[in-house]
Amino acid sequence: MTAGTSPSDTPAGTPSDTRSERDTAPERDTAPERDTVPGAARRTGPPRYWHRHVGADGAWRKEHTGGPPGEDLAALRAGLGKPAGTVPSLWQHYTSRTDGRPTPELEAEHGALSLYGLHQQSRRRPMHRPGVGLGEALRRLRQSGGVSADALDRRTAAAVNATSVPALLYRLRGLIPQLRSAAIPLDYDQLLRDLRNWAHPESRQRVRRTWGLAYHTDKRDVPEEPVPSAPDR
Prior knowledge:
disordered N terminus
């Protein structure tokens, strides 16, 4: 999972992983989900795009039983590989606050929206599922038997070794279609947080650790902690 990739594993045209890191600390979260920064505030404002269609239980909302319109999903996919704010079809779907300049929050939302459009394409069931992080989703894919475990391990390692958000998004573009083919959903609130935190070295390490542990550890295999017996009186 943490092993590096060989030159043969890096396709031509991959975004550079060597761009300079941001000098500012991660911004406090203003989304309904919480950031990894302790004490972050909850976000107020319009719901993220996927929340307009999917309820907290992971099922379609009654008013959107057919899922998002195909033209919406096509508009979201138009953002793949493009910088935040440069695709007019996405402007109406942004909910992040901005003064007209890209922010880490907007860049993360842009990436999550684009990947959601790719993930939900041609799927009848919701591909946003609260509580399913990327590591767990990829572990489910590996256990499904529908993909080469070795190939998936290499692709996952390439993704987690990315050191910039554009490079990570490039790698995820190759993994999300595999999740879609296996009908494995993903928590897009969590992915948005992870993308935002990826821009900063310290929080990136926390995201890597979370993904890695979830990818390699099946919750069903974790033994329960023994309950200590009461001391003899």
